[in-house]
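Researcher: I need the complex structure. Ligand is zinc ion. Inputs:
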Amino acid sequence: MSVAWMNPNAITAITIHCAATPRGRNVKAATISKWDTAKFGQASYHYVIELDGNVVQTLRHDQRGAHVGGKNSGNIGICYVGGVEADAKTAADTRTAPQRESMALLLQALRVQFPKAKILGHRDWSPDVNANGRIDKFEWLKNCPCFEVADLVKELAL
Ligand SMILES: [Zn+2]
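Model: Output:
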């Protein structure tokens, strides 16, 4: 993890994504960065969590990601490998036990470094169409990261 000192207020959000790769397909962080570089000219995420729980840092914290349209400043992106069923289209929380463990450890470490950052799922950036103060399922622009990040934040007391 990037340990160089950084103003803790420079990071206002931490956003969790899935790679939208099929359940069980062992795609590596380097491959995801290669795909993103072809599409966006750079790695999209700051961290990629591989199936075996290995966490690969793909951008430094002071580098801007490319993972939430128009909302990448001060926004750390974390992507886990998986997110769809083996059919490659049905959204699913495919996180392995090691991925869950690593995600928890990574979020806890980032929380220490950036105490005020909101921790969100990609879909939580969708517009609040009916302005009821929460992003409901019908408002999601996409399923990513295919699980409820708010529940995880609560569970880990982040
Ligand atoms: Zn996403």
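Model: Summary of the prediction. The domain at 9-155 is CATH 3.40.80.10 (Lysozyme-like).
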